[in-house]
Amino acid sequence: MRAGSLKQQISCGSLPSPLQTCIQLADAVEYLHANGIVHGDIKPDNVLMTDDGRVQLADFGSAISALTTTLDFTQTKSPNFTMRFAAPEILNQKEGNYTFTEASDVYALGMVGIGAYTYEN
């Protein structure tokens, strides 16, 4: 996408409408949750912006069914999510076994929204 990621737009200070961006992102997260999917790694890098200002959520490498919300990273000991946007309850879990929920996606959405309004990644 020529417009790049939300992270790029925030870094350049070129985000035209933080409110509309956050509304569109919230709609995307709501759609995922309504279809039983937890994203697990919502962050500005994973939000792509189209040339006409539409938001597209990307990188579903951590996405899981809401029916099975535990990701087991015990073999690599390396979490497949971004700590900065992780909900406190995720960070307080035993290393190597992280349980994601719709609530943890909503927390990450809020963190992204704060970044959009303050122009901080």
From TrEMBL:
SUPFAM superfamilies, per the entry: Protein kinase-like (PK-like)
Protein kinase domain ranges (all copies): 1-121
MF terms (GO), sorted A to Z: ATP binding; protein serine/threonine kinase activity
One Pfam family hit: Pkinase
GO cellular component: cytoplasm
InterPro entries found in the cross-reference section: Kinase-like_dom_sf, Prot_kinase_dom, Ser/Thr_kinase_AS, Ser_Thr_kinase
Keywords from the named record: Kinase, Serine/threonine-protein kinase, Transferase
Segments passing through the bilayer: none
PROSITE patterns: PROTEIN_KINASE_DOM (PS50011), PROTEIN_KINASE_ST (PS00108)
Signal sequence region: none
Record-linked PANTHER family: MITOGEN-ACTIVATED KINASE KINASE KINASE
UniProt name for this protein: Serine/Threonine protein kinase, catalytic domain
